[in-house]
Design goal:
heterodimer; A: 336 residues; alpha/beta
Chain lengths: 336, 151
């Protein structure tokens, strides 16, 4: 297939000189080079450099606080993909590893956030072609009447080809209490595609650990097709403070020294209280800090400067209910 | 007689890899790929049967390729083509269309001459296969998979 000579961006018109259209993406059709001789040597570090693996992993480190076991697994996968590529260069057998994953962990530990990054990561490592993320829940896979589920699930799978299919709260697919639930059908199609199109897409199941265990017990086929079970640990106090720091920075706020102290205390107290959801609770706390800061500024009136708009004071933090015994049981956490 | 229609019609049949590359090209341009089939390949028959809906929003050729393989398997003795629809304003038309599957045997067309008033002649093309009812117009052989480039 010869490349079309500079097609206009739209329409069948002749290309005009001086106004070239965007460079069309070239469909890859390069031939495979002959295998390296058996006595050849390859510089592993140079290869790693060329693939920018180290840079990728560093960025992952910088973006995600904590999560050591998760990062270890990503590092292993990156190494495997590199070694596999070298083996292929030597003409050794190399099969594409199955990279379907299961993320389990408490609420707010970054399961969904990381899943969104995995596609991008695997694309840059050369495992996936497009690396787009298709995030679905039970609603998107399971139909409402007989014969509705299969096309629906297949449609979603087709959209996810070349990238990552993230099934959030995957255990809802299986409803043991209802024998005629269509979720089972979706699971069967999913399993079939996970096996047949192993090189085309990566399926990630995310959810809470205990329910996921029940799900896997009743769907042994699913458990065995997922090679990587990754457990997201809870964040420690220091990690949570670091996360808060990052969140404030991206929103262009900052805390005074006293406010920082108060916030440390706040997080320690909040962790001991019920329904603590790790980073999500921190996010909510920061949103409420912004509310209180805004109220303080408006109430004070007068002239304000740019710094006032950015600064969160200790009083803003101390006003939280968490310092006054916190939430009673059964209360919604919206007014902490 | 080998029927030639659409893009690449004078090239040898595309292999699966080449088809995937073309679909990838269309998708990178934001065109929606669809699979169509027919056993009435008259040149004026532009509306072929649709194999499912056009696949909007796909990012990777694998999904469309799977549909194409399914269509070939389900419709032996049919012509199968891939079309790419460009929905952008000002275009809104098929931007690319090529045959990806054809019956093993193609008997071709006959030229009919019809006498009309004043010794005028009207000409029309008639596919030999169209004499038989739909569904068994071509030898029930499996549609020749592109890529098996039999000489």
């Amino acid at each position: 297939m010869g490349a079309p000579p500079q097609p206009a961006p739209r329409g069948f018109a002749m290309p005009r000189p001086g106004a070239p259209g965007p460079e069309p993406p070239q469909p890859g059709a390069e031939g495979t080079p002959p295998p390296l001789p058996p006595d050849a040597e390859v510089d592993l570090a140079a290869q790693e450099q060329a693939l920018r693996i180290a840079a990728l992993l560093d960025r992952l480190d910088a973006e995600f606080v904590g999560l050591a076991p998760v990062k270890d697994r990503v590092r292993e996968v990156a190494a495997l993909l590199l070694v596999d590529r070298l083996r292929r260069d030597y003409g050794l057998a190399s099969s594409r590893p199955s990279l379907h994953m299961c993320f389990t962990g408490a609420p707010g530990t970054g399961k969904t956030t990381l899943a969104a990054r995995v596609g991008e990561l695997l694309r840059e490592l050369g495992y996936l072609r497009t690396g787009q993320l298709v995030s679905v829940t039970r609603d998107d896979l399971v139909g409402q009447y007989v014969g509705h589920t299969a096309p629906k699930t297949k449609e979603v799978l087709k959209r996810a080809m070349g990238g990552v299919l993230l099934i959030d709260e995957a255990y809802y697919l299986y409803r043991p209490e209802n024998e005629r639930d269509y979720g089972q059908e979706a699971i069967e199609i999913l399993l079939q595609v996970m096996e047949a199109h192993r090189e085309d897409l990566v399926v990630i199941l995310a959810g809470y650990a205990d329910r996921m265990d029940v799900f896997f017990r009743s769907n042994p086929g699913m458990a065995s097709r997922i090679a990587h079970h990754i457990d997201f640990p809870d964040f420690t106090l220091d990690e949570l403070l670091l996360i808060a720091e990052q969140m404030l920075e991206t929103e262009q706020y900052r805390m005074t020294g006293e406010a920082r102290e108060a916030f440390g205390e706040y997080v320690r107290l909040r962790m001991a209280q019920p329904r603590f959801a790790n980073a999500r609770s921190i996010r909510n706390a920061i949103d409420r800090l912004r509310l209180r800061q805004a109220r303080r500024l408006v109430a004070a009136g007068g002239v304000i400067a740019r710094d006032d708009l950015m600064e969160i004071s200790a009083a803003d933090v101390r006003a939280s209910r968490v310092f006054r015994g916190g939430l009673g049981p059964g209360r919604d956490s919206s007014g902490e | 007689m080998r029927i030639t229609q659409g893009t690449f019609s004078y090239l040898p049949d595309l292999t699966d890899d080449e088809i995937a590359a073309q679909i990838g090209y269309a998708q990178a341009r934001g065109w929606a790929v669809a699979v169509e089939f027919t056993d009435d390949p008259h040149p004026r028959n532009v509306l072929w049967e649709m194999w499912g809906l056009p696949m909007f929003g796909l990012a990777d050729p694998a999904g469309a390729m799977a549909e194409m393989h399914a269509c070939r398997a389900a419709c032996p003795g049919h012509y199968v083509r891939v079309t790419a629809y460009d929905a952008s304003l000002g275009r809104q038309t098929t931007a690319l269309s090529f045959i990806v599957g054809r019956p093993a045997e193609e008997p071709g067309f006959r030229l009919d001459r019809q006498e009309s008033a004043d010794r005028r002649l009207r000409y029309t093309l008639h596919p030999y296969a169209a004499d038989r009812p739909r569904g068994n117009r071509y030898a029930d052989g499996s549609s020749q998979q592109n890529g098996a480039r039999a000489g």
